[in-house]
Amino acid sequence: MNLYLCAEGVYPNKLTAKLHDNENRLLHTIKMGVFSMEMKAKPATSLQGVHHLQLHDESNDSPISNRILLSDHFILAKTHPNPKTEDIERIYNDIQGGELTKVLDLLHYAILDETEWADSLNVLANKKFTSNKEC
Predict the structure, then answer these.
(1) Element (H, E) at 126
(2) How many Cβ atoms are within 10 Å of 18's Cβ, its own excluded?
(3) Per-state percent for the chain, helix, strand, coil, to nearest 5
């Protein structure tokens, strides 16, 4: 699992990310390297139990950011589905799983309600096969 950070601004020094649990206990420290608008790290350990992180200056270990809550958008999408598009998303997932006969089930939604279909297209267009990050 990768950790993606999206940030604004500039910072001249290298950074570390300190990962904490929900009781503010330090779990892991990850070297992030130089600051950029989009930073990516592959932690050596699981992110299970990590609640938030804080960026620190690597040279003097001083915090340079607020605490940032972590979220896994795949879990959020599964636990908070959009009721309007839940069936369409289920059909889409079936199609991704190889059940190509489900393509015809999508026609039902195209015929019934053009507005719902337009909203569903936005949801389906935002799903990516290879990308799993949001900034």
Answers:
(1) helix 114-126
(2) 17
(3) 35, 25, 45
**69-72 LR contacts (CB < 8 Å, sep 24+):** 70/3, 70/19
Distance CA 9, CA 18 (A): 20
Q: Are 32 and 17 in contact (CB under 8 A)?
A: yes
Predicted TM-score (pTM) of this structure: 0.55
Per mean pLDDT, which range of 9-13, 71-75, 131-135 is the poorest? Answer: 131-135
Residue length of the chain:
135
Instruction: Give the C-alpha distances (Å, rounded to integers) separating 118 from 10, 46, 93, 110.
Output: 39, 38, 18, 9
pLDDT in tens, 58-109: 999 999 999 988 876 566 656 666 666 677 778 888 888 888 888 888 777 7
Token pair for residue 109? Answer: 């939604």
